C-alpha cells in the first residue's frame, strides 16, 4: 500500500520587524495540512491539476524526446518559458499540460518519491551516451518510492537522469480559517479593505501555507487563496483576507516578507488588494493609487493624491499602484 505520509516537525518561527530591521521574516518547515493516508492513497484520491511543472531537464534532451517519454502517460503538450531572445540554450524547466488529470496520477506512479514538508517526485530517464534513445525507469528509494521495470527500447551504455515533477493538488487553492467570518463563502461578503495581494509565490506554497505564515507574522487570517490559471495551476500570486484591520495594516505597512523554509527561500511583495473600480476615499472618482503609510492606508485618485500629499510630511509617502491582481473567486 506504500508508506504513510508523515507529519512534519513543529516549525521554528522567527518574525522580526523593528526600526533597525523593518523587514519581517519567517523561518521554519513549510506548513502543510497533514492527512493520515498512504502515498498510494494520496495519489489516487487527490484531484491534481492537469498541468505539471518539470525541473532539472538535461540540456541535451530535445522536446521530441521529452514528449516521447511523457506521452506514455497520456496525451500532452509542453509549454516552455518565454525566451528573452538572449539565450539559445534549452531552458532547464517547463510546464506539461495533459489532456486529462488522471494522466498526472499515472506519471506520479512512475516517479520516485522523497518527503520533506512536501512530497518531491522525480522521473528518472535513461539517456544513451552514444545516441538520443531514451526510456524511463522507477527505482526504490529510502523515502518510499515504488519499483517497476524499465520501458522502451534496448540501450547502449547510458546514464540515469532525474527530472523533478511538481504536481498541484487542487484542494490547496483555498484555505478558510474561520468560515463564520466569510458568510458561507459568499465572495460578495468579503471585506476587500482587509485583503492583501502577495507575489511572487513559490510553486509549493499552498493556501494553507500562506495563511499559516501570514497569521504567524501579522495576525489573524480568515482566508487565503492561491490564484490559478485555466488549468487550475498556480500563477505565482495569491490573496489573504485578515480577520481585523490591525493585522491587515501591519502587513501592508511591511510591504514585504522574507520566507526561508526547508523547500525554498523567497522574498514576497505585499500589496493592498485594489479592485478594478476601487473608489477614491475622498471623492467619487476611481482610485488607482494607494498609500501604504501606516498613518494613511487609503485609496486615492491621482488628483486627491496630489491635493493631500503635495506638502510635507505627507509628501514623503510612496504610492502603491494597482498591478495585475485577478479577483479571487471562491
TrEMBL record:
BP terms from Gene Ontology:
negative regulation of cytoplasmic translation
Fetch the InterPro entries from UniProt. CEBP_ZZ, CEBP_ZZ_sf, CPEB, Nucleotide-bd_a/b_plait_sf, RBD_domain_sf, RRM_dom
Which Pfam family, any one of them, does this sequence belong to? Answer: CEBP_ZZ
| One Gene Ontology CC term in the entry | neuron projection
Which residues are in the RRM domain?
51-120, 195-271
Q: Does the keyword Oxidoreductase apply?
A: no
Q: Which UniProt keywords apply?
A: RNA-binding
What Gene Ontology terms describe what this protein does at the molecular function level? Answer: mRNA 3'-UTR binding; mRNA regulatory element binding translation repressor activity; ribosome binding; translation factor activity, RNA binding
SUPFAM superfamilies per the record? RNA-binding domain, RBD (SSF54928)
State the protein's name: RRM domain-containing protein
Amino acid at each position: 500500500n506504500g508508506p504513510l505520509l508523515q507529519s512534519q516537525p513543529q516549525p521554528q518561527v522567527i518574525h522580526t520587524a523593528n526600526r533597525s530591521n523593518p523587514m519581517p521574516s519567517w523561518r521554519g518547515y513549510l506548513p502543510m495540512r497533514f492527512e493520515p493516508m498512504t502515498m498510494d492513497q494520496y495519489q489516487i484520491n487527490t484531484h491534481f491539476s492537469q498541468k505539471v511543472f518539470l525541473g532539472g531537464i538535461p540540456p541535451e534532451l530535445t522536446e521530441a524526446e521529452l514528449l516521447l517519454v511523457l506521452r506514455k502517460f497520456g496525451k500532452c503538450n509542453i509549454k516552455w518559458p518565454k525566451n528573452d531572445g538572449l539565450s539559445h540554450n534549452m531552458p532547464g524547466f517547463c510546464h506539461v499540460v495533459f489532456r486529462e488529470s488522471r494522466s498526472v496520477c499515472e506519471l506520479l506512479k512512475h516517479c520516485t518519491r522523497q518527503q520533506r514538508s512536501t512530497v518531491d517526485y522525480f522521473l528518472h530517464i535513461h539517456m544513451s551516451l552514444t545516441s538520443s534513445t531514451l526510456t524511463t525507469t522507477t527505482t526504490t528509494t529510502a523515502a518510499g518510492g515504488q519499483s517497476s521495470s524499465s520501458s522502451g527500447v534496448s540501450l547502449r551504455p547510458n546514464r540515469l537522469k532525474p527530472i523533478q515533477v511538481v504536481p498541484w493538488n487542487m484542494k490547496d487553492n483555498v484555505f478558510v480559517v474561520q468560515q463564520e467570518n466569510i458568510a458561507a463563502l459568499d465572495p460578495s461578503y468579503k471585506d476587500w479593505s482587509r485583503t492583501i495581494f502577495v507575489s511572487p509565490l513559490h510553486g509549493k506554497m499552498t493556501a494553507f501555507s500562506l495563511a499559516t505564515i501570514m497569521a504567524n507574522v501579522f495576525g489573524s487570517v480568515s482566508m487565503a487563496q492561491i490564484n490559478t490559471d485555466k488549468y487550475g495551476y498556480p500563477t505565482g500570486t495569491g490573496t489573504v483576507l485578515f480577520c481585523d484591520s490591525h493585522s491587515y495594516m501591519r502587513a501592508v505597512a511591511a510591504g514585504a516578507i522574507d520566507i526561508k523554509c526547508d523547500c525554498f527561500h523567497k522574498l514576497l511583495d505585499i500589496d493592498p488588494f485594489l479592485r478594478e473600480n476601487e473608489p477614491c476615499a475622498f471623492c467619487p472618482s476611481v482610485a488607482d493609487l494607494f498609500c501604504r503609510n501606516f498613518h494613511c492606508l487609503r485609496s486615492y485618485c491621482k488628483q486627491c493624491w496630489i491635493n493631500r500629499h503635495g506638502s510635507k510630511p505627507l509628501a514623503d509617502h510612496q504610492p502603491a499602484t494597482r498591478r495585475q491582481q485577478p479577483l479571487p473567486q471562491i
